[in-house]
Batch of 2 targets.
Target 1
Amino acid sequence: DRAQSLAHSKILTRGEDVQEQYDYIVVGGGTAGLTVADRLTEKGKYSVLVIEFGVFQNSSSVTTVSYGFFGLIDPALNFNITSVPQTGLNGRTVDVIVGKMLGGSSGHNGLQVHRGQKADYDRWGSYFGRRSQWSWDGLLPYFKKAWHFHPPSPELARANNIKYDARYWGTSSNIHASFPTYAFPFLKTEIAAFGEIPGVQFPPDSGAGLPGAFWYPTSADPGPMLRSFSRTGHWDGVAQTRSNYHTVTGQKVLKVLFKNKRATGVTFVPANATSGKYARSVKAKKEVILAAGTIHTPQILQGSGVGPAKLLREAKIDVVVDLPGVGTNFQDHPFQVGALFNLTKFTAHPDPNDLFLNQTFLAEAQAEYNANRTGPLSIASGNAASFLPLRVISPTAFSQIADKCEAQDPAAYLPPGTDKTVVDGYAAQIRAHARDLRGAGSAVYNLFVRGTYNEGSAIYLHPLSRGIIKINSADPYFAEPIIDYRALSNPADADILVEFTRFTRRFFLDTSLSNYGPVELWPGANVTSPADIITALRSFMIPSSFHPVGTAPMMPRKLGGVVDEDLLVYGVSGLSVVDASIMPDLPGAYTQQTVYAIAEKAADLIKARA
Ligand SMILES: Cc1cc2nc3c(=O)[nH]c(=O)nc-3n(C[C@H](O)[C@H](O)[C@H](O)COP(=O)(O)OP(=O)(O)OC[C@H]3O[C@@H](n4cnc5c(N)ncnc54)[C@H](O)[C@@H]3O)c2cc1C
């Protein structure tokens, strides 16, 4: 197609075609990387090179909106990484899934578009003090800039009580947030059931920064009904027409080069290289911007001599700056927590399972989709969920749990020998989270519902356990980094997840959903004591919903931070990080919307200091 041939004509696939020098080098052409590169090149003033490990991909596993998850199962789009065995999960390992293509994880995520709560972004600023620009108010203009909002059709909104308020959104971005044209009938019943629980609110919009039960959009361009992601919104038709914008794909950055602690450029090799034999270097006049994502940004920093000195020495890497926080503070949203239910008296067909089980329904849906790009196949992985505070899911235990967190010795839950600055940062986070666990403005529990009879796998939005990512000291550049989620290493997580299970049971058994014959599939109605629930969790929970953050945290340096509020790496100059790794802690939402907003804000910060 046209987009593809245009793209192919302008892309550099050979390292030797790269110029000697650019104003900016963006490492990683993913969600954040392509957003920043677009903004830096749009006025024609600066030259930018994006270096991307993956290649241009436009297969149906990327573009398809229906079902939302084709990319997950396409090995061409994924790095092949497995975590270390998880002590807290009976030694199980976990697949670490992040996107590998021009567009990064935005090219194969589940297309759900949520914004975190005000409390999340204000918490980020609180680590720096009252006047930080990292706050809900400071980020709201960038959420608006990042997204082009298309409201649901009036019929869909009316039939399903979908609340939205376009004032929380913009319409100038080429990244689209839109609604499917169809909703399965049972969804309305499920969302209404949340309203039967005391304290559950229905905020005016999914972007209002408030917890509750609500509908939210999909990252799809509603015209052609195709995935809208950083490549389609910030690169297709943009990079091709700007002579100041170069992209090289299929190349892996090994390290940042420094002269007197100033970043001067990077070294890169073909993505399939197993040695530095064909390494090339390229210079950055103004800045090297790391946007390789939460898994690989810390690997590149450590491989460049920016990281914990002890680890670097083990790997025989010269220390440029001893920055203990690099690779620490690793977080993701655990899922398969709560409880799974089967509604044995469900009759509200059609439901999503009918797309697999009812050939007539599938054929009709397919015909409608082919003709108009509408109907059930315009639904991706979901558009309705609850995001609930601990005090709502556990009115009896939330306060005690918060007390227990406040009384913790955080050092006890980090690896032995963790640097004092990192421990102090963790302590600050635990205090901030304890405050939010008590409050009504921050969601910990997420249950996304699909309008069907097998539901209930909740997602935990603010885990307190912290993982770690380290270069493989035997092969720091060519082996994948060593990834440890350290799942359930902070016992408060298990306490909170016990409440998740109890609440999920109340949701199915004590609301009008009880009319549909709910039977618990997991962990099972007989599993009731906290100890038994935790045992079940260890065998079932997955510590990732593919939302890794935090490994180059924006925190004060004395709190284990890696970047400051301008996203500049401490202890060196000319080096910044712009991707999910800078989030000090997780938002109470999936992460893509926040990553785009961070990238939009970062572009302004970078231009301001140019
Ligand atoms: C399967 C899946 C489902 C998800 N579902 C949702 C969802 O429904 N809703 C939501 O909000 N969020 C979702 N997310 C999360 C969201 O997509 C990510 O948080 C976000 O895209 C991360 O953006 P990023 O810029 O930090 O990293 P990425 O977009 O991953 O970009 C990093 C880029 O750097 C490249 N790179 C890595 N190492 C190197 C190197 N050494 N040299 C050069 N390039 C390199 C990578 O190939 C990649 O393109 C999902 C993610 C995944 C993976």
Note: The longest helix spans residues 420-438.
Target 2
Amino acid sequence: MRYGGAEGTLALQHTSLSLARGEFVAVVGPSGCGKSTLMKLVSGLWPSTAGSVTVEGREVDGPLSSVGMAFQNPTLLPWRNILDNVMLPLEVVEPHRRRLRAERPAYEAKARHLLSLVGLSGFERKFPHQLSGGMQQRASLCRALIHDPKLLMLDEPFGALDIFTREDLWVQLQELCADLKPSVILVTHDLKEAAFLADRVLVMSARPGRIIADHTVPFPRPRRLEDTYGAEFQALQHRLRAEISAARRGDSIGGEEVAHVG
Ligand SMILES: Nc1ncnc2c1ncn2[C@@H]1O[C@H](COP(=O)(O)OP(=O)(O)OP(=O)(O)O)[C@@H](O)[C@H]1O
């Protein structure tokens, strides 16, 4: 993937990734290695300059409205209350769009249920500016999940939050995923977050980005925050950190282009 024509920035090179249904994959790597570019390609927000992307058996050739997305900035619409923000994808994504008018009470109940799962019962009629950053991010997760996306794309969704709120949200996201079973791609700089949430952690090289390691995370689910202090969990984080440091310096990992671990 190259931005800006033949002489432009080569952001991603020889990148191949496949996700099983319901799998949770985290992508980590040095700053500027192409993680967000990968997300833009998978969600169809940016066309690839070579290669192809297939979601649900169909080649991606434009923005995918069926995919659920959440970013570092919650991007809630300030003039809509929380319930209406969460329900927004239902006004866009078929078949919900067609059914929304007739089945509004059922959809509204679903939105309220999702909000209750993330501790936002009672805030449905509040506006985004009346909520803290963490609460807005919870609402944005509900919005990403309201239309039952098969694929959930999360680009540093908790990056702007304090560590306590972040950890709360990891637990809530884990519960939501156990319930709704979407496939997930999470881009993060937080290695603890990657190891806590993911089934696999992919490490990318410095630009042009390539996937240089693919770790299976062996810890059973549901995972508890206490587990993150265990020796195995710490060892995985250290290994990821070492690989990213090596990638920043441009070293290869174990002499191999891609290491499959686990
Ligand atoms: N729209 C664009 N036009 C030109 N170059 C771009 C564009 N978007 C990204 N790039 C370049 O592509 C490379 C990869 O960017 P990308 O945002 O995907 O990295 P990243 O891994 O998500 O970075 P970070 O971890 O800092 O968020 C960078 O060198 C960036 O400058």
Note: The first strand starts at residue 2 and ends at 3.
